[in-house]
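[job 4471] stage=fold_predict status=RUNNING
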Amino acid sequence: MDAKEKKAPGPGWFTIRAAAEYLAIGEPTLYRWMRDGKITFRKIGDSTRFLKEDLDAFVQVFPSSKDAEQVKEFCQICNCDKLVDGHFRTTGLNYFKPSETKFWTLKDSNVKTNSKMCTRCGNIMLFGDIKKLLALMKKGPKESEDSPAE
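[job 4471] inference complete, writing structure tokens
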């Protein structure tokens, strides 16, 4: 029997067994995640159900530094790929300023940001200029602990 046949009736509902199979994990792991509040589930009377969207949203993707640019093409909340480029503004332009920079620099220490908005959920994502940030930091890009791997 495949996961589709074990799926509960309704709008994409999964039983606990079907959800565990879909995620390729054991049922005890799924119960632990439910108890710890790590995964979204629904109660219908005494029955526990999962929506496919909730299961898919639980799966975390850790892209390599090569794929880091692709992360900017999907909403971080609902994984929608329909994003609109724009500018996030308040009373002026928004910049990121690192709290610690090189001691003496003649460069402006503000890192410009750009943004994208999801057409499905309205999430606004801000992205900064990584090259400028690394140039401003005390450690060079090769020495930085958190810099993207090359």
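[job 4471] summary: Residues 65-136 form one domain.
[job 4471] exit 0
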